[in-house]
Write a structure and sequence with these properties.
Layout lengths: L2 E6 L17 E2 L2 E2 H9 L5 E6 L4 H10 L6 E4 L4 H11 L6 E6 L7 H14 L1 E7 L4 E5 L2 E5 L5 E3 L3 E4 H10 L7 H6 L6 E4 L10 H12 L2 E14 L3 E3 L2 E3 L3 E3 L7 H13 L5 H4 L12 H14 L2 E11 L9 H12 L6 E6 L5 H4 L3 E12 L7
Parallel strand pairs: 1-4, 1-6, 4-5, 7-12, 17-18
Antiparallel strand pairs: 2-3, 6-11, 7-10, 7-11, 8-9, 13-16, 13-19, 14-15, 17-19
């Protein structure tokens, strides 16, 4: 079964009071739309981002900065309905299920995505929804009256459909729609409700943005890591993913990149996940000579599957020789690319131990790392 995701990000954000498209606004250092893409990417074989044509370059630059790929960028239309229809038209053949997600929902969980996919596959159309919790009143002609909330739900995204069904709904009903499920219902096809998530809020008004910032600020976690490897002849010296000319290299099962090993442990530790020895054991021949930069990218994927995003990294390399200053910038760029972080969020420093201990005697190189991560999936709060 092939799943295609559509993230709609072609709005204007007028109700938020922003002077630009609200999904481009930074939320804890990442544009709002990035969170939606990160949530769908693990579950989707093909991912489409719908943007305004005049903003496409801005979206492309931000995707590159955060090391995130989409399969297609599609221009939006005048109304939301036009934007979704453009994406459906551009979608490649062979997509069995399509998910339509608002670009302004930063707290979408993997569990919710899976629930919608399973229900759409079984029933044709599915939307996440939560029961209305507050008492409702209707104001009319200067008078108000209580409205029963029984049987009323707040609908969220992603909305999921068998692709042929949603394409037919758009083809046969030309009216504007803020809800894809509403078009499907006009075909006479029922829409299944799946349990939604109260944290899956949509950023619409200024207070929503403030609430999202507070939620993320309260979900920051810190981890630390340390690693040391012996220097030996006949091995390449790789630090921070950079091959450095030196007569000695670090001994290890992989490329023995001590700074990246320390950073991976810091990231995993921040999430209370097992250390790198559990994820990439030195008893596994698959990792013999492996690039630690690639393992760092895989670590980012492990974090994502558990509901975490890297937020910042700080490394200190302890080496008596060689001088590392010429290579620091490239190390930072490597790490930022592997973790999907802007360069200013990655720090790498180098120091000696003034001739003391194994590092000072040039028997080894060590590294310390600190990292912060964001818990963005409700499962990571359990």
């Amino acid at each position: 079964m092939k799943v295609c995701g559509i993230v709609v990000a072609a709005g204007a954000g007028k109700r938020l009071g922003a002077d630009q498209n609200k999904v481009l606004l930074p939320l804890m250092g990442r544009p709002l739309f990035i969170y939606a893409l990160m949530a769908l990417r693990p579950q989707c074989h093909h991912l489409i981002l719908v943007t305004r044509a005049d903003e496409q370059a801005a979206f492309e630059a931000l995707l590159q900065e955060h090391a995130l790929q989409v399969d297609q960028l599609v221009p939006g239309g005048r109304e939301r309905r036009d934007s979704v229809e453009n994406a459906l038209t551009a979608m490649p053949e062979g997509c069995d299920i399509v998910l339509v997600q608002d670009g302004a929902r930063p707290f979408l969980s993997q569990d919710l995505v899976r629930r919608v996919i399973d229900a759409a596959r079984a029933d044709g159309a599915a939307v996440p929804a939560i029961p209305v919790r507050d008492t409702l009143r209707r104001a009319e002609n200067g008078a108000t009256a209580t409205v029963s909330r029984e049987g009323l739900y707040q609908v969220q995204t992603p909305q999921g459909f068998q692709t042929a069904l949603l394409k037919r709904a758009y083809r046969e009903h030309r009216e504007a729609a803020t809800d894809d499920a509403g078009l499907v219902e006009r075909l006479g096809h029922p829409v299944t409700l799946v349990p939604g998530d109260a944290r899956n809020l949509k950023i619409t008004h200024p207070e929503d943005f403030t609430m999202a910032q507070q939620l993320l600020a309260g979900s920051l976690r810190l981890g630390t890591g340390y690693d040391i490897h012996r220097l030996v002849p006949g091995r390449d010296l790789v630090l921070g993913g950079v091959l450095i000319p030196h007569p000695l290299g670090l001994l290890g099962h992989s490329d023995a990149d001590a700074p990246l090993h320390a950073l991976m442990d810091a990231l995993l530790g921040a999430c209370a996940l097992p250390d790198i020895g559990q994820h990439f054991p030195d008893s596994d021949p698959e990792y013999k000579g492996a690039s630690s930069l690639q393992l760092l990218a895989e670590t980012r994927g492990i974090l994502a599957r558990h509901g975490f995003l890297p937020q910042q990294a700080d490394l200190t390399i302890l080496a008596q020789r060689p001088k590392l200053a010429p290579y620091i910038l490239k190390m930072r760029q490597n790490i930022a690319g592997a973790l999907g972080l802007p360069l200013p969020r990655v720090s790498v420093k180098a120091t000696t131990t003034e001739g003391l201990d194994a590092v000072g005697r040039e028997e080894a190189i060590a590294a310390q790392a600190a990292a912060t991560v964001l818990a963005v999936d409700d499962a990571s709060f359990e």
